[in-house]
Amino acid sequence: MNMKLKFGTAALVLCLASHSALARSSVLRGDGADLVREINDTQIEIDLATAPIKSRADLLRHLRVTQDSPLSKLPPSIRDNFIRSLVFTRYGLASYSYLGLNTVSTTDLYAVFSLFGHQRYLTSVPGLKAVNETERSILFVSAMGGGGGENTTEEPPIQNSYCTVDGPDSWCTYEYGSACNAKCK
Question: Is 87 helix (H, G, I), strand (E, B) or coil?
């Protein structure tokens, strides 16, 4: 049975709040925006904590042992460019090239970004299209707070910026077609 659930942000907040430990937290003493931010920030932490790839070593191991990786759904030239562009810091994925990623389905790209705990940052890829209800929902959630903004305390990735690492220091510098995020510290 295929059921489509459609609801507004207020209904989502009420549903999550009534079934969550967040409902018992101090967040409820603020306005609804505080609860939405707390939920988004918690989900971002969960996504990052459960991601299978957090370092170059994790990536190489994943590529070696995972035959049906979401990365294999990327066209070879786009996959190679994406993999070459990945920069990790001790905090996880810090930057990547998004060139060509808008030619991949939103669903497949969600699976790729999930490997790194960055599935809520899809709006950092310009030109993504949604072809069905699931993809519209994916992009909606990304735009609502997963990619930073007013619904989360997490900063969105900076477009046309690349994480440069020099020893213990790292910073975002200009590079067309790349995204640099808060993990570049």
Answer: strand
Q: What is the pLDDT of residues 52-94, one digit of tens each?
A: 999 999 999 999 999 899 999 999 999 999 999 999 999 899 9
Q: What are the boundaries of each domain within the chain?
A: 50-180
Angle between helix 106-114 and helix 133-141 axes, rounded to 10 deg: 50
Q: Do 123 and 142 meet the contact criterion of CB atoms below 8 Å apart?
A: yes
Query: Do 107 and 138 contact (CB within 8 A), yes or no?
Result: yes
Q: Cβ(95)–Cβ(162) under 8 Å? A: yes
Measure the CA–CA gap between 48 and 60, rounded to whole angstroms.
Answer: 18
Cα–Cα distance for residue pair 105/152, rounded to 1 Å: 26
User: In whole angstroms, what is the distance from residue 53 CA to residue 56 CA?
Assistant: 8
